[in-house]
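writing this on my phone so excuse typos. first protein, seq and then structure
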Amino acid sequence: MEKHVSTLQWSEDFALGVGAMDQTHIEFVDLLAEVQQAPDDTLLAKWEALIDHTQVHFDNENRWMQETRFAAGNCHTTHHKAVLDVMRDGLRYGQQGHRNIVRQMAAELTTWFPQHADSMDAALAMHLQRVGYNPETGSIAHPEMLPGELIHGCGGDTCSDQNVETAEADTTEAAANA
């Protein structure tokens, strides 16, 4: 009997109005769906492709934050690191024959992504738009809108260091329970 896997589908509801960010998110959703639909013989290759894409995706967002006055250790950047670390742990488990862990992590990402995009990424997109940041060139059209001090949170009203620690713990717990 074949198990039905619910995959995340791209929706314009996920669009944040920053073209480079939206395109990367579309690619992430598509690659995640490929992982979820992959047979066992291609699962790890698809998962590795998702990790590689996610590394570039997060590196870009981290660079955009740094160029627009986010502190290097802000919670958004820390969250990126935690997610990538867990994904890489999943790859190691998968390589040891525990493909069910990779499949569980992929299922968890279908829940994680919309929440992350709707909170941390939405706050970043609003910040980038406010300062007139161009991700392709790194130019800032409205430098006077840059914050006077480095942003230490995620840029959103609900972000705190405790929220990041909770998100990291939730992600690690999901991996351990897979």
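second protein below, same order as before
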Amino acid sequence: MSTHHYYQLQGYFRELIELKTLKSGSKLPSEREIGEQFKLTRVTVRQALQNLEAEGLIYRQNRKGWFVTPPAVVYNPSSHLSFNLYVTEQGFVPHTEKLMQQIEPANAYIAQLMNIPEHAPVLYLHRRRYINQRPVLIEKMYINTRLLPGIEKEDLTQSLSQLLKNNYQREYRDMDLVFKSTSLPSSAADDLGISAGQPGLHIERINYTADKQVLEVDYEFWRHDAVTINIAIRD
């Protein structure tokens, strides 16, 4: 196989994945091993694998290697289901890791949204979320502590929607959503264990109570191959 015909290598691995000879989540041989097997340079191997990654067939985890991409989870923003619930209902295993939390002063934008004074305390929460032990989503959110006093003392690795319902008798009702296709910023890429500049989905969400008060402002960064947005519109 000629070093400049990396498309042949792409086709080889694409066929193995489509035939499920290489199963979802399985690890590919190292780039060195692939190069030795097919007598290709490391540059050619890397180009073929990166093209397969762009197709969403494989993904790279820093310091771990290349893996076959699992099926994407389907996310319907209009359903109001929590991450834990819609992931579980689709047969996957969710997990949430808290990376940081702190009470900090609200900036002008957050204060205006929450109808609180600028610099009033809000809870900043930074989480990493997993599907089947694969990190797929980074959340950075601001929570209205005026409506949810003491929330910083709760276990914030759990579903926030369930926490609000069980402990505060509040529920998310309305929401504003903005979806952006983007290159992942270095901070989100580092948190996900991938290279900066990888394609991703950026979601900005504002969650409201039934009486139109803002409970939470949420910024999410998803791996591009981990989620499919599905919104049903009916008359």
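The CA atoms of residues 181 and 201 lie 5 Å apart. thats all i got for now
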